[in-house]
Every structure is written in C-alpha cells, then in structure tokens.
Automatic annotation (TrEMBL):
It holds the Pfam family WD40. Keywords: Cell projection, Cilium, Cytoplasm, Cytoskeleton, Repeat, WD repeat. This is Intraflagellar transport protein 80 homolog. Coiled coil: none annotated. GO terms for cellular component: axoneme; centrosome; intraciliary transport particle B. It is found in: Cytoplasm, Cytoskeleton, Cilium axoneme; Cytoplasm, Cytoskeleton, Cilium basal body. Residues 291-579 form the IFT80 second beta-propeller domain. The keyword Repeat applies. Gene3D superfamilies: 1.25.40.470, YVTN repeat-like/Quinoprotein amine dehydrogenase (2.130.10.10). InterPro entries: Beta-prop_IFT80_2nd (IPR056456), TPR_IFT80_172_dom (IPR056157), WD40/YVTN_repeat-like_dom_sf (IPR015943), WD40_repeat_dom_sf (IPR036322), WD40_rpt (IPR001680). One of its GO terms (biological process) is cilium assembly. WD repeats lie at residues 93-125, 175-207. It comes from Macaca fascicularis (Crab-eating macaque).
Length: 733
C-alpha cells in the first residue's frame, strides 16, 4: 500500500472510481476505489513540488474516450508539466517567476490558464505555447477559474476578485470579496455561480455580475478549498479538520470533522456522487454524498447508502427498501413514478408497486438531469437528451445546432406531455421548442425569441396541445407568458408580473404560482391575459411572503400544496384553495352549470373572475354573462347581451374576438363571411380610419359612408381634414 509521507497538495478523478493525488513527497499516486489499492504512478524529480493539477477535459461527443488521458501539473519551480496518464512527463514549460500556483484547462480543452506568485495570468495553447499574458498585478494570484463559455477568466488579487474577458478592450469586473486574502475560487458552468474562500475564514457565493448571494459565518480557521459539484446543485468546502457540504444557495447540509489537517484541494467525481480531499497530514479523504430526500404527496424516498434507497409511505408508515446493482447518480420522484439513474442503468418504479421496476441500460454514462411529466420523462447526459415513456420505451431525442447538454438544468429545460422546451446557451434570448413524440421542432420550426435574456422557463402541464403555454422569467425579473404553438403569425409575449424570482406550474391543472418581491402570488387562470386583460388582477391570489426571508425558491406545486425552500434550507408548505382546481376540471369537461353552482357556493370574486375568462375563452357567452354580472362588470354584460342578439354566427364570433381584443382576427372572420360593411364598421367604431377607408376602397363599397362618418367625427371635434387619402377621395364624391 503506497501512502504519501508529506502534505498532499492536489487530487483529481480520472473515472468515477479512480483518483490521482500529488504530494510534497514528489509522488503521484493512483487510488482505485473498487479494489482499495494504491499504486505509485511516478516519482517526480526532487526539485518539483506539485501545487495544482487538472485533468485534460474529456472531449464532448466522442463516445469511446470515457476517461482523461493527460493532465497539467503546476509546480513551485515556476514550470508547468504536461504529464500522461502513465506518468510520463511529455513537456515541462517555464511559465512564471516563482511558483505556478494554479493551472486550469478550459471546458473545450483548447486553452490552459496559469497563474503565479509573480502576479501574472497567462493563457497557453493545448501544446504549451504561450498565447498571451492576460493580466499582471503586484500580488500573487492564488486561484483561477474559467467562465462557463470559456471566454472569461476569474482570478484572485489579494482581497479582490477580478473577472477579465479574453476579448481585448472588454469591460473588466472587479470587486472586494473578502476581508482577508482569497485562497480559492470556483465558477460553475451550469448555474453560472462563483464560489470564493478566504483567510477571513468565510466562504461566499456570488453571481457572475459580482452580486453577493451568500456569506457564511466565520469559521475557526481559514477556508483552504471550495469546489462545485459538476451539476451545480451542491458545493464542498474544506478547512482545517473540516469538510462541509452545502447547497448552491449557501446553507449547509452536513459538517464533518475528519482528522486531516487542512484540506488544500477538493475534487468532485465526474458523476457528482463523491468527493476527494487533499489533506495537510498526507492523507486523502474520500466522502460520498448520501441522505438525499425526494418527496411527492405521501411518499418520501431517501438515499440511505450508495446503492440503496428507502421509501416511506407516511399514510401507513409502510417502508420499502430498494437495492441497486450500481451506485445511484440521480433520481426524481413525481407523477406517481420514481426514476433512478445509476452509472449504467435506469430504473423506473411506480408508486403503486415498488417491487418490480422497469430497468433499461443507459446509452451513455452519467445522467446529469431527470425531468418528469405525466406521461414520460427526460434524461440528459453529457452528449444528448433522451425522452422515455414510463414503460421504459425510448421515444425521441431532440437536437439543435450548437446544443450543449452538459450545462442544462431544471431552470433551462422544461417538459410537458406534448412539448419539450430548451433555453439556448449560445443566445439566452431564445427558447427552442420540440414535439415530444418525434423530437422535431414544433409547428413551422420557428424558435421563440424574447427581447431580454431568459433565466428560467416552465411549460404548463394540462389541457390541449393547441393551448400549451410557456411561462418564463427574464433577466429583468419580468414574468412573461406566451403560446407554444407557432404557425406563421407571431405569438404575443405578454407580461404577467414584475420582480418575480421563482415560478412553478401546478401538476394537475394550469395554475401558476410565483414569488414576487415580498408577495406570494397564484395566477389561477393565466390564460386570462389572452381573453380579458382587465380582469387579470381579479383572478389572482396574493399573500405576504416576508416569512420566507430573502431568496426563497419554489420546489414544487402538487395538488393544492406549494413547497418553498427558504434561504436557510428549511422547507415551508403553503396550502392554497382547492376550488380553482375543481373549476378548471369542470370547465375542461364543459360542465358549465356545475361551474356556476360551484362559484355560487364558494362566493369568491376570484372564482367568478376566472369563470368569466374561461367562459369567454370557450365561447360560452351565457356563462360569461352570469360571471361578469357577479363581479360587477356591467358594461361587459351589456356588450355580451348585444352579441347574443346579432343575427349571424360569423358576426357573433367576430364580436367575441373583439371582446378579447383580437381586432385583426375579428376583421378576418367578417371578411371571410363576406360581411364587408361590418368589417368597415368595427374599424370606424375603433377610430381605425386608415384601415376603414382601405377596406372600403379595396372592396369598392361604402366609401361614401366612411367619408360621412369621418366628416361627422371631425366636426364634433372642430378639426379640419389633414389626411391625404381622405382629401383625395373626398374630391371624388
């Protein structure tokens, strides 16, 4: 058994079961976790003291190459060394005056950044040719990290953090981050968040604009290492005799006090299930992430060991144990199914029967995300996206140019029974929409584009495919909604609210909830914005959300219960009224009388307002009239009455469209039915004078009528005719 005699400075995984470590005793040692054996790979020359090392990234999309083949090692003699997996030093390159304190490959493996005691930040090619000196300063640079798109570099400067783009003349971002020297930084490519650790004994979480998201309590000793898990959901923190596991929002899941000395370097395994720490006393500490919880209705699932789960039904306290052949990497519990991915297989359990899961082999290694809808679920791995039915049948695999699946997360992908939506990384203003059953782009293949960058997307889960809606939050924290079906005409993107931080659709009906500044809001019928925007405020439920402290996050919205995680990690459950869901149910099966009866029983304005909008959306004017009367919208009741007395079906239809503000569609309906005069008349009523005249001239009819109305309008306001077209036609009549 080979062990290190001196402090271990750095560690790195090649596969999920194999780790390399480097130490001040000049050894590079390989650890095999399956056989618990260690072997010496190479003993470096006595003048090389390793400081940092980083495996060359696996090439994306190449199936055969499942492990890294070479690594960069930085050392105290001012050089970095490119070393093969077998320990052969391929190249040693003079890089800095004094020690090279850190070296990092970018995500594509096309460039290497090194930083040193001389305060220089240098960019090198894959083969070790110097490309540029990005920056230089008077203090040593202790740590460096690449931005998610490999176009920016984050590095330390004493107590400051600096983000510098590779692009010359681009804006540099710099801020004071700690009260002591910053020792370690890490920047995650999935959630775009930054970690920093300092001699002020604190660790902090920042967004990529340098805004503080979390600030830890001071520890007893300086924080010597921090590292993100690959999927950006967790991070680990190392200090003297201390190892901590934290959520991405900063609160701590677990604290261990191993007898290790200081932990100088933490590395996560590729699948994110375990970490290794390089310890000051010559040990390497290994830790597995266990005890994750998943909850759905009355079921609670816990990962008890690496290959075992416990399922508890809280109604009758029945407990089931689930055993797996390989270690569990990801799991998801929703829609009466538990989906578990191990390193080689995927298991699908029904909550009705825990004994006979459906098992199928995974195409590739590590699953980084599982999303569920009622009929099927989505797996994301390093190279593709796969949709499977709960019977384990492969359905489709959507693709788009430049797709990077390694950086997708639950905020940027959404799944419903018929649609898959993906927020693009190259251009964050774009959402790609796919048909679930075929994996082909939806409709005419157009993507959805917004004027601002989009942060989070969510598809509604119920109702007809043609009515599928997508809600999203953009960079300004505006909550918008739009229709997913895109044929020719550009669908409107309508703003539902401002300062919204988190959102969720209900799993059984299309009710949307969100946290808006200091309020918790439920949009009982978001579709109202397409029907009658005036009554939207009446269809909302609001309550104060200051009890959730700052930065809360909605975890789920199942039935009439919303689960919110507060910034300190505690879960809060809110129950909302069950009646709107029943109303949705009645309306979807056209039970209008039952719906009216329900509203009369509940006697709430929000219910009547929802029913009014639902009735107009489904063209049931009798119910709409009752509902509008109940919320005191008398003008609308009168208008609906006037619609009912119209002679033809087409004109009724057109006026219902007008009621919802769809003027063009109303005009098209009338023109198709040959009701040209009515089409002209609605434009006159809306003072669309240009369009009224255009139609009259085009259909060679009622030009004199339009001119007469225009004349009367001008006389009323005591104005003279200035419109050239009207002057021109007035001469002819």
């Amino acid at each position: 058994m080979v062990t290190h005699q001196e402090l271990v400075s750095c560690v790195g995984w090649t596969t999920a079961e194999e780790l390399y470590s480097c130490s001040d005793d000049h050894q590079i040692v390989k650890w095999n976790l399956l056989t618990s054996e260690t072997t010496q790979i190479v003993k470096l020359p006595d003048d090389i003291y390793p400081i940092d090392f980083h495996w060359f990234p696996k090439s994306l999309g190449v199936k055969k190459q499942t492990q890294a083949e070479s690594f960069v090692l930085t050392s105290s003699d001012g050089k970095f060394h490119l070393i093969s997996k077998l320990g052969r030093v391929e190249k040693s390159i003079e890089a800095h005056c004094g020690a090279v304190l850190a070296g990092r490959w970018n995500y594509e493996g096309t460039a290497l950044v090194t930083v040193g005691e001389d305060g220089q930040i240098k960019i090198w090619s894959k083969t070790g040719m110097l490309r540029s000196t990005l920056a230089q300063q008077g203090t040593p640079v202790y740590s460096v990290a690449w931005g998610p798109d490999s176009e920016k570099v984050l590095y330390t400067a004493g107590k400051q953090l600096i983000i510098k783009p590779l692009q010359p003349n681009a804006k540099v971002l710099q801020w004071k981050a700690h009260d002591g020297i910053i020792l370690k930084v890490d920047w995650n490519s999935v959630n775009d968040l930054i970690l920093s650790a300092g001699e002020d004994c604190k660790y902090k979480v920042w967004d990529s604009y340098g805004r503080p998201l979390y600030n830890s309590q001071p520890h007893e000793h300086p924080i010597t290492s921090v590292a993100w898990a690959p999927d950006g959901e967790l991070f680990a923190v190392g200090s003297f005799h201390t190892l901590r596991l934290c959520d991405k929002t900063g609160w701590s899941y677990a604290l261990e006090k191993p007898n290790t000395g200081s932990i100088f370097n933490i590395a996560w395994s590729i699948d994110g299930t375990q970490i290794a720490g390089a310890c000051g006393n010559g040990h390497v500490v290994f830790a597995h992430v266990v005890e994750q919880h998943w909850e759905w209705k009355n079921f609670q699932v816990t990962l008890t060991k690496r290959r075992a789960m416990q399922v508890r039904n809280v109604l009758n306290d029945a407990v089931d144990l689930l055993e797996f052949r390989d270690r569990v990497i990801k799991a998801s519990l929703n829609y009466a199914h538990l989906v578990v991915s191990t390193s080689l297989q995927c298991y699908v359990f029904s909550t009705k029967n825990w004994n006979t899961p459906i098992i199928f082999d995974l195409k590739e290694g590590t699953v980084s995300l599982i999303l569920q809808a009622e009929r099927h679920f989505l797996l994301v791995d390093g190279s593709s996206i796969y949709l499977y039915s709960y019977e384990g049948r492969f359905i489709s695999s959507p693709k788009f140019p430049g797709m990077r699946t390694d950086i997708l997360n639950a905020q940027t992908v959404s799944l419903s029974n018929d649609t898959i939506a993906i927020r693009d990384k190259a251009d964050e203003k774009i959402i790609f929409l796919f048909e679930a059953s075929t994996g082909k782009p939806l409709g005419d293949g157009k993507f959805l584009s917004h004027k601002n960058e989009i942060l989070e997307i969510a598809l509604d889960q119920k109702g007809l495919t043609n009515d599928r809606k997508i809600a999203f939050i953009d960079k300004n924290r505006d909550l918008c909604i739009t229709s997913v079906k895109r044929f020719g005409k550009e669908e409107q993107i309508i703003k539902l609210g401002t300062m919204v931080h988190t959102l969720a659709w209900n799993d059984t009906c299309n009710i949307l909830c969100g946290l808006q500044d200091t309020r918790f809001i439920v949009w009982y019928y978001p579709n109202t914005v397409y029907v009658d925007r005036d009554i939207l405020p009446k269809t909302l439920y609001e309550r104060d959300a200051s009890e959730f402290s700052k930065n809360p996050h909605i975890v789920s919205f199942v039935g009439n219960q919303v689960t919110i995680r507060r910034a300190d990690g505690s879960l809060v459950h809110i129950s909302i009224s069950p009646y709107p869901a029943i109303l949705h149910e009645y309306v979807s099966s056209s039970k209008w009388e039952d719906a009216v009866r329900l509203c009369r029983f509940v006697k709430e304005q929000t219910m009547w307002a929802c029913l009014a909008a639902m009735a107009v959306a489904n063209r049931d004017m009798t119910t709409a009239e009752i509902a509008y009367a109940a919320i005191g919208e008398i003008d609308k009741v009168q208008y609906i009455n006037s619609i009912k007395s119209l002679p033809s079906k087409e004109s009724k239809m057109a006026h219902i469209l007008l009621f919802s503000g769809n003027i063009q569609e109303a005009e098209i309906v009338l023109l198709q039915a040959g009701l040209v005069y009515q089409a002209i008349q609605i434009n006159i009523n809306l003072y669309n004078w240009e369009r009224a005249l255009e139609l009259a001239v085009k259909y060679k009819t009622h030009v004199d009528t339009v001119l007469a109305y225009r004349q009367k309008f001008l006389e009323t306001f005591g104005k003279q005719e200035t419109n050239k077209r009207y002057l021109h036609y007035a001469e002819g009549y």
